[in-house]
């Protein structure tokens, strides 16, 4: 009997599109072929025969900057098509994706307010950063009238912008955003196959998103430890940055909060379900590969809208990989592939 995507449902066609597009994701052999290119023009020609053909259509590309811009804008356009057609739980899911980017744009543009407003995470209030001279003005111009307001209730900042650690603020914003999204979906039962105000038919499932979000939280915790090992952060302050959405045991989180060396971190990770990241020489690479594996598994979960979120996460990684291909074009393949994160 032939399977059908969400029978007679508005999301059926979208899911079919995503599963079809997922089969066009780039493989290691494709990246190796791109690395053998002699020029940007050669890379563009090869990408024309992949899922990026629509991104590059009617676009003049003469250099690396043009190519990356075309890919970024193509992804933005593809995402917005899905976003504008969605509602209910899929709209909430894609809003979570979008607001994550908006948080990143907010933090980045505090230091770079003059950047051209082309990225997915740009929102119009960010234009006011050009005129903000203090955090009080940032709050007044941007934060108080956007989704950021509820997250800043728990963040203490210095009025002098330069006195703030923006990476800590970013970590806290992403933590609160993850927790907020997870809790709202838990309360509405969307991680279970049952009806709710967002989920008007039982076949609309976000069951796998529970796994994805807990993975995001757990890997974020490990990355926080990795990035703060050689700093003066206290165990308490480090623990404050840990998302409550994760699948690490309390005893493991306590050990991680007190971790003081890479060797200690590796020993702690060995005790968790994330021990496979240790097979990679670089821990950060291991974390990224693990997450990609989790994202890819969404395509094996039938009729689960989580795959839409995972698809766009994977496309973002592909564009990062293509950027590395351009950087390493003409160099030794082995060195380049170490920086290209993919799962075959």
Automatic annotation (TrEMBL):
What keywords does the record list, in alphabetical order?
Ion transport, Transport
Task: Please give an example of a GO cellular component term from this record.
Answer: proton-transporting V-type ATPase, V0 domain
Q: Does the keyword Membrane apply?
A: no
Under the heading InterPro entries, the entry gives:
ATPase_csu/dsu_sf, ATPase_V0-cplx_csu/dsu, ATPase_V0-cplx_dsu, V-type_ATPase_csu/dsu_dom_3
Cross-referenced SUPFAM superfamilies: V-type ATP synthase subunit C (SSF103486)
GO molecular function terms here? Answer: proton-transporting ATPase activity, rotational mechanism
Any one Pfam family match given in the protein's UniProt record, by short name: vATP-synt_AC39
Q: Which PANTHER family match?
A: VACUOLAR ATP SYNTHASE SUBUNIT AC39
What protein does this entry describe? Vacuolar H+-ATPase V0 sector, subunit d
The organism named in the record is: Pseudoloma neurophilia
């Amino acid at each position: 009997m032939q399977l059908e995507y969400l029978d007679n449902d508005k999301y059926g066609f979208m899911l079919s599109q995503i599963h079809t597009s997922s089969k066009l994701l780039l493989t290691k052999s494709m990246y190796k072929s791109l690395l053998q290119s002699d020029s940007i023009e050669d890379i563009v020609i090869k990408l024309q025969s992949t899922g990026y053909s629509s991104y590059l259509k009617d676009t003049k590309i003469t250099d690396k900057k043009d190519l990356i811009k075309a890919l970024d804008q193509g992804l933005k356009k593809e995402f917005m098509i899905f976003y504008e057609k969605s509602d209910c739980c899929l709209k909430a899911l894609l809003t979570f994706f979008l607001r994550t980017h908006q948080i990143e744009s907010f933090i980045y543009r505090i230091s770079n307010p003059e950047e051209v407003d082309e990225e997915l995470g740009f929102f119009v209030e960010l234009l006011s950063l050009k005129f903000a001279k203090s955090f009080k003005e940032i709050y007044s111009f941007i934060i108080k009238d956007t989704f950021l307001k509820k997250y800043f209730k728990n963040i203490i900042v210095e009025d002098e912008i330069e006195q703030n650690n923006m990476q800590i603020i970013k970590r806290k914003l992403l933590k609160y955003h993850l927790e907020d999204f997870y809790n709202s979906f838990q309360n509405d039962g969307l991680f279970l196959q049952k009806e709710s105000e967002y989920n008007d038919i039982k076949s609309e499932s976000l069951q796998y998103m529970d796994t994805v979000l807990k993975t995001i939280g757990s890997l974020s915790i490990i990355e926080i430890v990795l990035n703060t090992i050689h700093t003066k952060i206290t165990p308490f302050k480090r623990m404050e940055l840990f998302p409550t959405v994760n699948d690490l045991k309390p005893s493991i989180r306590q050990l991680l909060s007190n971790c003081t060396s890479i060797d200690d971190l590796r020993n702690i990770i060995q005790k968790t379900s994330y021990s496979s990241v240790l097979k990679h020489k670089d821990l950060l690479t291991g974390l990224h590969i693990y997450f990609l594996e989790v994202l890819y598994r969404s395509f094996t979960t039938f009729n689960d809208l989580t795959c839409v979120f995972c698809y766009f996460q994977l496309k973002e990684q592909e564009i990062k990989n293509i950027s590395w291909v351009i950087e390493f074009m003409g160099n030794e393949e082995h060195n380049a592939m170490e920086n290209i994160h993919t799962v075959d």
